[in-house]
């Protein structure tokens, strides 16, 4: 790319030796959990026939502005990227749905056999207030369905896929909070009534809430504010303003969930923070089992139907529905509740070498064990026996292999039981079978 002379070097006042607030390193010890989340996502996607798609992390800013003009996630929480020419502003993706819709249109997927079912997994960016379950670089697993007609079956299937993911990660007591927000048409009258209801109570609203009332009164319904929580008990409900198709659609989604035996809670105040939804909206919420778990009372995932987004992006009317699971939150719950989701790690033998000849032959010995699928750990950079034994002990190894000068010369190795100290010398050729009997 051509160098732009006008571009100033970014100032570096903050400590560049520290990760950015709200963003984290995932250290080796945590990787098995992240790998488990990814393999579970793949299993769910494969089982329900979602094809994987990877979209760029950076997109045109307008993609998000068009899909969610009012949402906080776009107006307040987005990260911007200036292009080098300074002419365009791009955005770090705050969510996956708009990028997938863009890709659906860009690659002519409308001519693919429908439904087109796509899944994705990766990092997203939101300038949120960092705390447990709230990060500025977050990770989602998402599932989207584009179909030829509006079919409640697909709402149920994306809910099922999300719910199964959470269940396969061994999280219990999570329930599906579900609502319908009908079509934009039935919403118009409802919004007018809601506005009138809150206007009567204006004196009790904060400045921010008053702004919300003017811009998007629906969003007042999912405010966590105690005042609003009390007020909304008496607020008009969308259920009284649904047209017959919307009612029928919602009833049918609920029937599917009942047939599947999925636990759901009707929540007529659930509206979600994104602007593109119609009909079904839902969230997976963990029900804390005790007070100490109250901090985990967040949504582990959410989604809904978005029948107008493809059209809004210039395509033909295409019904669509989807879900995204917050991986960071799922893993936070697993860690906090100490849920055992990982299989017991395969025991590794610890190879200890003494002397130059043994060191030289060590890598070949490891290859011999690799062929036999026996995992090996080592500290070949250390020379002393005591130092290597200490590392083996710290690693919790139950079996060590001692490969000294004499053993290397005689093509043997000592198998040592780290707990009892019992030792046995075996020929290298019989090492794999001797170890398999022990492990
Ligand atoms: P969303 O509700 O904005 O929906 O995000 C989905 C999930 O991402 C949330 O339920 C939560 O678990 C997780 N999440 C959101 N913000 C954060 C954060 N700051 N830190 C950690 N986790 C977070 C969407 O993104 C829609 N695209 C879902 C969808 C797909 N709708 C239709 N298709």
TrEMBL record:
Its chief place of residence is: cytoplasm
The source's superkingdom equals Bacteria
User: According to the UniProt entry, what is the EC number of this protein?
Assistant: 6.1.1.21
- EC top class named in words: ligase
What are the record's GO terms for cellular component? cytoplasm
Q: Which reaction does it catalyse?
A: tRNA(His) + L-histidine + ATP = L-histidyl-tRNA(His) + AMP + diphosphate + H(+)
BP GO terms, sorted: histidyl-tRNA aminoacylation
List where in the cell it is found.
Cytoplasm
Query: Which portions of the chain have biased composition (kind: Basic and acidic residues)?
Result: 12-25
A family per Pfam: HGTP_anticodon
Keyword annotations for this protein? Aminoacyl-tRNA synthetase, ATP-binding, Cytoplasm, Ligase, Nucleotide-binding, Protein biosynthesis
Q: Where is the composition biased (Basic residues)?
A: 1-11
- What HAMAP family does its record include? His_tRNA_synth
Which family is it part of? Belongs to the class-II aminoacyl-tRNA synthetase family.
Protein's recorded name: Histidine--tRNA ligase
Tell me the organism. Answer: Candidatus Harrisonbacteria bacterium CG10_big_fil_rev_8_21_14_0_10_44_23
State the taxonomy lineage: Bacteria, Candidatus Harrisoniibacteriota
């Amino acid at each position: 790319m051509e160098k732009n002379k006008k571009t100033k070097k970014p100032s570096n006042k903050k400590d560049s030796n520290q990760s950015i607030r709200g963003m984290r390193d995932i250290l080796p010890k945590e990787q098995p959990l992240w790998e488990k989340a990814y393999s579970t996502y793949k299993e769910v996607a494969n089982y329900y026939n979602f094809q994987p798609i990877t979209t760029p992390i950076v997109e045109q800013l307008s993609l998000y502005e068009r899909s969610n003009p009012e949402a906080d996630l776009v107006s307040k929480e987005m990260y911007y990227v200036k292009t080098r020419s300074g002419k365009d502003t791009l955005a770090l993706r705050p969510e996956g749905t708009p990028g997938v819709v863009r890709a659906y249109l860009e690659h002519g997927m409308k001519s693919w056999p429908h439904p087109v079912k796509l899944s994705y997994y990766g990092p997203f960016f939101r300038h949120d207030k960092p705390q447990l379950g709230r990060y500025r670089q977050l990770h989602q697993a998402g599932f989207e369905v584009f179909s030829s007609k509006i079919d409640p079956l697909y709402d149920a299937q994306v809910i099922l896929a999300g719910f199964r993911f959470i269940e396969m990660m061994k999280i219990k007591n999570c329930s599906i909070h579900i609502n319908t927000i009908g079509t934009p048409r039935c919403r118009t009258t409802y919004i007018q009534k809601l506005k009138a209801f809150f206007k009567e109570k204006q004196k009790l609203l904060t400045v921010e809430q008053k702004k919300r009332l003017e811009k998007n009164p629906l969003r007042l319904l999912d405010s966590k504010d105690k005042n609003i929580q009390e007020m909304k008990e008496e607020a008009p409900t969308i259920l009284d303003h649904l047209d017959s198709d919307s009612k029928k659609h919602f009833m049918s989604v609920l029937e599917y969930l009942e047939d599947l035996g999925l636990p759901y809670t009707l929540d007529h105040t659930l509206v979600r923070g994104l602007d593109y939804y119609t009909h079904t909206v839902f969230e997976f919420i963990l029900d804390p089992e005790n007070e100490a778990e109250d901090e985990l009372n967040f949504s582990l995932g959410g989604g809904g139907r978005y029948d107008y987004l493809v059209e809004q992006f210039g395509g033909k009317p295409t019904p669509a529905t989807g879900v995204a699971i917050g991986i960071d939150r799922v893993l936070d719950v697993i860690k906090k509740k100490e849920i055992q989701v990982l299989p017991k790690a395969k025991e590794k033998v610890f190879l200890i070498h003494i002397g130059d000849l043994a060191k030289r032959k060590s890598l070949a010995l490891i290859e011999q064990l690799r062929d036999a699928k026996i995992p090996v750990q080592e500290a070949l950079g250390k020379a002393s026996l005591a130092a290597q034994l200490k590392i083996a002990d710290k690693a919790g190894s139950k079996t060590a292999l001692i490969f000294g000068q004499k053993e290397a010369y005689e093509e043997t190795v000592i198998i040592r039981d780290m707990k009892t100290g019992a030792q046995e010398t075996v020929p290298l050729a019989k090492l794999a079978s001797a170890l398999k009997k022990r492990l």
